[in-house]
Specification:
This protein is of the alpha+beta class. It contains eight helices and five strands; from the N terminus they run αααααββαβββαα. It has a five-stranded antiparallel beta sheet, with helices on one face. The protein is flat and about 65 Å long.
């Protein structure tokens, strides 16, 4: 009887936990954007002032619309001119310009449609022979490092478990990388779950 109750309890956790955690993350993000964006809205334009209760997700909706408008404005000649002038102004400010240029370059590299960043999951032998980690290629090594080192080297980001947003960079010879026939999303799931979620090849998943 106790064994059955235990099994029912574990099954209940397995069924409800993913749903509860997913909704908790979504609701937390919506509330975060509401707290950050809603106070910026002018009083006379804020619908929460006129309605009997606050509109959930208003901050997120306004942020998305704002980003779309900014994107459309910078796509034309006048918007591009303003963007260039803004870049020149920020790059003249000591200390701040270092962070600005670095963050801008990272986003430009990741968001470019033809970017190689985080497009491929690979296996790398690390930290010693016989041990392997999952990584993501971010492009070929270029610049000063390529001049100093011989052969084709690939930048590989090695994420940590269970937080894949942190990690470290390895510059690995191309012939020492084993490419995986898996999607980046599936590889991240395996890393976050500490290997609990089995990593299947694209071919096997589609068959």
């Amino acid at each position: 009887m106790l064994a059955k109750i235990k099994n029912y309890f574990l099954t209940g956790i397995l069924v409800t936990a993913p749903v509860v955690i997913t909704f908790w993350i979504v609701i937390s993000l919506v509330k975060l954007f509401d707290r950050l964006v809603t106070p910026i809205i002018p009083y006379y334009l804020n619908p929460n002032v006129y309605l009997p209760r606050d509109v959930p997700g208003l901050g997120l909706i306004i942020l998305v619309v704002f980003l779309i408008v900014i994107g459309s404005l910078t796509a034309n000649f006048f918007g591009s001119w303003i963007l260039k002038k803004t870049d020149l102004l920020i790059e003249k400010i000591p200390f701040i310009k270092v962070f600005y240029k670095t963050i801008k370059q990272i986003f430009e590299t990741i968001l470019k449609t033809n970017s190689e960043a985080f497009r491929e999951a690979v296996l790398v032998e690390y930290p010693r022979k016989g041990l392997w980690v999952i990584g993501f290629t971010t492009g070929e090594v270029q610049g000063e490092i390529k001049k100093k080192l011989r052969g084709k080297l690939i930048n590989v980001f090695i994420p940590t478990t269970p937080n894949p947003t942190s990690g470290f960079l390895l510059m690995v010879p191309n012939n020492q990388i084993k490419k995986l026939d898996v999607s980046v999303d599936d590889a991240i799931k395996t890393i976050v779950s500490a290997g609990i979620i089995k990593l299947e090849s694209r071919q096997k998943k589609n068959s």
